[in-house]
Amino acid sequence: MEAIPPAPPRILIVDDDDSVRDVISVLLREEGYNCVVASGAEMALDVAGEEDTPLVISDMKMPGKDGLWLLENLRERLPDTSVIMLTGYGDTESAVDCLRRGAVDYLLKPPKLTDLIRAIERALAKRRIEMARKRYQKKLERKVRDRTAELRNALRDIANTYQNTLLALVAALDAREHETSDHSQRVVSYTSAIANRMGIQGKELEEIGRGALLHDIGKIGVPDAVLLKPGKLTPDEWMEMRKHPEIGFQMIQNIPFLDTPASIVLSHQERWDGAGYPRNLQRHEIHIGARIFAVADTLDAMTSDRPYRKGTSFANAIQEIRRCANTQFDPEVVRAFLDIGEEGLIRIKEEMKLKKGLPQAELEATEAEAELARLTDLDDDSDAPSPAGRPAATEGVEAKDVVKRSATGSEG
């Protein structure tokens, strides 16, 4: 079966002189081109837009809208259409101006047939090259978009793998400490909520969340005899316990995507007033993530149940954290924390339980208990200092719990 030859290219000839227009169209039809004509620039623009028109041959000077007007409008509306301008003797300066404005060529009137054919061939060849380049560019852009999407998905998978690895590591640490109800992840939720309230977003928020998640990673290097001791720690044991921020920092500081979290891990036991450890940093010397974490960790330590004591209410914990602003905690962070409110903080904790798939009945019971505890605490003078000067809400906290911030103003 013989191949069907391609249709001849459509050429629009524009000239207000009927004789010039007719002669050129007849000659080009004899050469095998598909010619259409227009007697003015506005008519030409309409005709060119009716179907694909690879080439327009236009007179420069015409009554009304001239060739320059047509050229500019074709460039704007039909950028893939090539334009050859025809000009009279003495008007070559205008013709050169047409080239600067996007015409592919110009010829003096009346054009010789051989010159006209060569100009048409050059214009169509140049257009084919330009169209091929555009097709290649679009194909390349599509490939880039596809590859970018694939790379983005791959990076997301890597990030998820990193995050799942960190979660598994922290879960193992919590299990070693006999922590209950995913302490580290609750602290991340509280920390992220406070940071959000302070206007922290994007990558910085993610890094602060990782720092909160990994805050106690250094306890891997603390002996069980110290970490899990049920009674009070001796001075030597406190020295061992106080090493865990530096141990954690040394563990992760050389991992590039944990650079900022490593600073939070190192600083998470520092205090606003400079009485923390290990470097006795104060105020804005402490990383903002560590300052936010300090409040979040204290809240969770005070409101979580332990085998040896019952957690206090959110109302008591909020009051104690407010009291310790400007000493243990950054006052700006405390303001953001207070803006969340008791109901908002309780909601965060309940949402964590939902993520763990607790039965609805248990969730409702927990909410009822929290509300009962809150109402009871309103009439309970439980904030009076104990004989040792420690708030009643933190009495009975053992060694492992004291190293977490319990808003007591003592160790941890």
Automatic annotation (TrEMBL):
Residue ranges of the region described as Disordered: 376-412
Keywords carried by this UniProt record: Coiled coil, Phosphoprotein, Transcription, Transcription regulation, Two-component regulatory system
InterPro entries: CheY-like_superfamily, Cyclic_di-GMP/3'3'-cGAMP_PDE, HD/PDEase_dom, HD_domain, HD_GYP_dom, Sig_transdc_resp-reg_receiver
Domain HD-GYP residues, every copy: 158-353
Coiled coil regions in record: 122-157
Keyword Transcription: yes
Domain Response regulatory: 10-124
UniProt biased composition (Low complexity): 384-393
Superkingdom of origin: Bacteria
Gene3D superfamilies attached to this UniProt entry: 3.40.50.2300, Hypothetical protein af1432
GO BP terms: phosphorelay signal transduction system
Domain HD: 180-302
The protein's name in its UniProt record: Response regulator
Species per Swiss-Prot/TrEMBL record: Pyxidicoccus fallax
